[in-house]
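> example.struct
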């Protein structure tokens, strides 16, 4: 079958990609991280989290309120979980995918990818983890640059054989566009930056 490059088109593809990550988003404009409680400072739980409970991501807000940055970062985590759940059972992706967090072109791209996974007999196990985010934007539209660790994500074929995933490290920057839909944020687009290392 050869090497499989995991992709989700223009949507949430890197939830499965295994590429490298190291460095800051923009050291010249870095701001204090937002903890899981929305307060500035060190990310909550970084030193005391158990192996089964990963630390919450470090969140940096640039030009948006810290509460907005926390909400948007949470939605990105929920979207990644929803994508992996859908790709675990690609034939049922349309009913598994959380429409509250993934919409528009992002949803359509994922459903096309799920059809490809179903046709090839591929399934996904494990969950990605958001390590840190940088949130920018204004009003009802924000951009979340998320460093995502996919080291726990495995893709297997119909026989249960693990598919090769490339040679990169397990962390990748992903860029999500979110829009406000009522009281909630939704992921409507996902891309990669020019340099995906985080």
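> example.seq
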């Amino acid at each position: 079958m050869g090497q499989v490059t995991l992709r989700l088109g223009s949507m949430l593809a890197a939830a499965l990609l295994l590429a490298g990550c190291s460095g800051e988003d923009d050291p010249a404009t870095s701001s204090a991280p937002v903890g899981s409680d929305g307060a500035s400072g060190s990310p909550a739980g970084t030193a005391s989290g158990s192996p089964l409970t990963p630390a919450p991501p470090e969140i940096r807000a640039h030009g948006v309120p810290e509460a907005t940055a926390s909400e948007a970062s949470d939605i990105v985590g929920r979207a990644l979980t929803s994508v992996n759940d859908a790709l675990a059972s690609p034939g049922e992706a349309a009913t598994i995918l959380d429409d509250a967090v993934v919409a528009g072109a992002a949803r359509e791209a994922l459903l096309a990818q799920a059809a490809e996974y179903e046709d090839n007999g591929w399934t996904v196990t494990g969950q990605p983890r958001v390590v840190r985010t940088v949130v920018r934007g204004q009003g009802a539209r924000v951009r979340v640059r998320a460093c995502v660790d996919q080291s726990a994500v495995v893709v297997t074929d119909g026989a249960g054989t693990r598919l090769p995933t490339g040679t990169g490290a397990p962390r990748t920057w992903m860029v999500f566009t979110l829009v406000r839909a009522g009281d909630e944020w939704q992921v409507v687009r996902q891309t990669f930056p020019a340099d995906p290392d985080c």
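> remarks
The chain has one domain: 13-24+56-191.
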